[in-house]
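hey so i finally got around to running the thing on that chain from the lab meeting. sorry it took forever, my laptop kept dying and i had to restart like 3 times. anyway pasting the input first so we r on the same page abt which one it is
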Amino acid sequence: MTLSAQQPATTRPTRRQWAALAVLVLPVLLISIDMTVLSFALPAISEAVSPTGTQLLWIVDGYSLAIAGLLVTMGTLGDRYGARKLLLLGAAGFGVVSFLAAFADSATALIAARVALGVFGATLMPSTLSLLRSTFTDREQRRTAFAVWAGGFAAGGALGPIVGGWLLEHFRWGSVFLLNVPFMVALLVLAPVVVREHRSAEPQGKLDLVSVAVSILALTGLVYGIKALAEHGVATTAVAVFAAGVVLGVVFVRRQLQLAHPLLDVDLFRLPVFRSSVLANLMSICGMTGMLFAVSQYLQLVLGLRPLTAGLLLLPGAVVTFGAGLLAARLARTVRLGVLIPTGLLLGTAGYTVMAFLGSGEADGAALQLAIAFVVLSMGAGLAETLTNDAILSAAPAHRAGAASAISETAYEVGAVLGTTVLGSVLNAVYRHQVQVPAGAEAARETLGAAVEVSAARPDGQELLASAREAFTRGLDATAVAGMLLTAVAALVVWRSLRGSRDVAPAGRA
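ok and heres what got predicted. didnt touch it at all, straight out
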């Protein structure tokens, strides 16, 4: 229910609201920890299951690919059948699959587990945002709640490298997946107690299964196509899959415009604030995941830092993300979104600028440079994430909160795919081109982790390792330049779209 304009600004959240917020941040915290820990576990995974370069990207992207294809459907199911019910179902499945992933004995098995995690993960994020909206009906309270929600990513980013680094130093790599299990158990116990169920008060016809199927195929085709194009260039299969995704996307949109009760309210994209917020959400996460993918390997495999030490170097950036989210909630009272959101993206550009051109300087200087770059980029991500999530949900009517949340999270996951796929593929392409590999050591051309393993067993291993580290450093420079361009262009597009916009929510919507 929308609060009246006369309601006092001094209204304070109840204890139950605060408790619900704490519980709903748990999945966010988990996803952030999972993403960060996995990035730091990549060297250990490379040595344990010997993936190719492509398989290594799939281990990272399998989750995002599955979740991107299912988020819209899951958000709609939450609106229809209950967001809390869907949250609990997803938590149970996520916990079980995390346990299985911890004991995967091959790259193929680990990729399959990551895809399954994506299926259950698709139920978690839209549900948390939808339940936050129904829990905090006051606009200022809701914005603060979103700042805390976004801060959950920062907290996970802070805990992930530290806890994960400790785990990786004392246990096998599978322990980073076992870390998920206690979070899911806590969610299953606490959510039924403190979080009220929310479903649409206006059920709108039967679920259109054709739209569900088309949306899954379209999103999967688009994401996979982008991935394949980035990895293999303009190959026939990559172009065909991407084109099929585009065609199915057009079919999906046309169908939604014709249905009386569509799966997705595509008219929301007519609102400048909505579509610009989705783009900014996507690009801020793209920048964050792209940097994490590259920097975590550089710190450990090039500079030779222990996982825990590498994690501590990125801790300030995670703390800054939380602070920037809370600051964004305050700034939004007086500063227009058309200024704040592009500023967040430009901070990402600045972060990549600091990261660029590491060259062959001293290890301590390079580590400090990367830590500063991550702080600057994290500040922009915290600013953008808080504001875009609030703007997206504020633009949607209450009975479509789950679907709007799904759009927001789809942007997040597609951004994560783009970060690891596009920026990660730039890194891998430069590495493969630059590394000098002697006869009989072709595996070292796939990944830096493979080069470390191969070099340890060869008499000329030091020369191979030096070449691999130099090639990876050049790849990191190229990745930074690509990140600079992507975030700068996104900031320009968002600024042009929002410069004439005066309001977050259209008239009549909370």
